[in-house]
Amino acid sequence: MLRVVIADDEVKVIQLIELLVDWSSFDMQIIARVKDGQKALDLILKEKPDIVITDIRMPSLNGIELVERVHEADLHPYFVIISGFSEFEYAQKGIQLGVEDYLLKPLKKKDLESVLHKIQAKHQKMNQTDAEKDSLIDQLKESQKRVKSSFLTDVLIQHLSSPLMMSPDQLDKKYGCQLISPQLRCLVTHIYTDDIRNTSENQEQVSFILPKILEILESLLTPLCDEVISIIGNYEVITLIGYSAEDPQMIYEALGKLKNSFINYRSIYSSLHGVIGISKPFTSIRMLVEGYQDAERMLFGRFNREGTFLLLSQDCGIDTKYPGIAPSYRKTVSTKIELLDAEGFCNAAEKYFDYIRYVSDNASAVQSAWSSLCETVIYGIRLFPDAPEDISATAEELSLAIERIYSLESLRELFIQSACKIIEQFTRVKQALEDKPIRDAKKYIQEHYSEPITLETVSHEVGFNPAYLSTVFKKSTGQNFLEYVKEVRIEKAKDLLVRTNMSPATIASAVGYTDLKYFTRLFHKATNLTLNDYRKLYG
């Protein structure tokens, strides 16, 4: 709503202006009425109205002087001058000073309404223009921000090395980055969960929080740093800062404020945890990749410092020396996978986690042990060249679990669960591969039961030697080879007895027997019925 001041030394004129139009219909409100030029000036400087309707002739200051003094104070309300015909020269001067319009006495309703309509339209257009200008400025800032962020994307996500070789001027020209500060640091603000299920709900929660974290980070760090560049990665916000202060304590304190904001999010998403890994300071952008890796490494320190929000190198035992994990651990794990020994694998994996607990105050040692364990599992999977895609996908998910899971115990639970799933999948695959020759043998018998069938004939068809086929056939079916052949032939004979009028001799020949008496004895032994009795009973 536009705020209006009326200045005139005649009370009747003020009252006339008030009553002449419906001010609310113009979205305007009269906030003051004054009868003196100086008082009008004081009021305008204090209240900063949008519209001033003033008479030319007033005590202390005339209307023209009032306009000049207000403009000198760098205020520019819409001025409307009221004048008599004899004061037209004053009105002309007012127009030269940029007043909106002038009205001749006696005032007429249509003239005042016309002026107010004009002011209203101009104000709306100006607001629209300002809004468009603000929108363009916002778009420009966002575009500049994206260009600046693309520096981190190119180096850390696309793995391009060329940006790291640029001079400060080249960086400024291409990315708009001002990376000339004496100290640089990489920060990784990572969101974890204790929910071992990789659900879409968890992913949506993290996707919702990360942009909020980025916005808060930049608002906290920008006043303290010469440069702040951030991008959103996988479960994390990666930030590069450049600063001049020798003591980064103020930066740490600002990051501590981020913890308070994150606590508010945890009241909604209770399974989520936030941790910031902070690299050691470095002096050249050519060390950016190492700085990022350093910050990522700090995140492994969370296992020994649950609840800690900021993880720095001096807190994560980087310089503490530990013996590496025994090579026998790696060999045992891969062997258990090869043997598809789920229980043995779990016991071997537990030794890895015992070691990780032992070295948990050293982020580098934890990272190395975890990488070794995942590489061993992947190596074990590669021992099976025909591993299905779903097994490889499970292994990939397993190796990425460290990016998702907060606590070591939750990570251990997920690892054991996923690894056992891999072994179960392999077991099914192996069983299917082992069963294939048996299925092929059965198929051959079903299709050639009327012909002379021997173990040697079928073994040749499926590519096994007879002794091995005999063994695995009995193990798979619970019957020896000849028993299965006899069963198939008897079942076919039953079908022919019921469906056809073929003679017993013809049926015997049709199911692979040339000796009718021998076939008859076999049929009776299998069914406790003669051929004719079976036909009478079921035919």
Automatic annotation (TrEMBL):
Residues 109-146 form a coiled coil. It holds the Pfam family Response_reg. GO terms for cellular component: cytoplasm. InterPro entries: CheY-like_superfamily, Homeodomain-like_sf, HptR, HTH_AraC, Sig_transdc_resp-reg_receiver. It comes from the Bacteria. GO terms for molecular function: DNA-binding transcription factor activity; sequence-specific DNA binding. Transmembrane segments: none annotated. It is found in: Cytoplasm. The keyword Cytoplasm applies. The modification 4-aspartylphosphate is found at residue 55. GO terms for biological process: phosphorelay signal transduction system. Residues 3-120 form the Response regulatory domain. Keywords: Coiled coil, Cytoplasm, DNA-binding, Phosphoprotein, Transcription, Transcription regulation, Two-component regulatory system. SMART domains: HTH_ARAC, REC. Residues 439-537 form the HTH araC/xylS-type domain. May play the central regulatory role in sporulation. It may be an element of the effector pathway responsible for the activation of sporulation genes in response to nutritional stress. Spo0A may act in concert with spo0H (a sigma factor) to control the expression of some genes that are critical to the sporulation process. This is Stage 0 sporulation protein A homolog. It comes from Porcincola intestinalis.
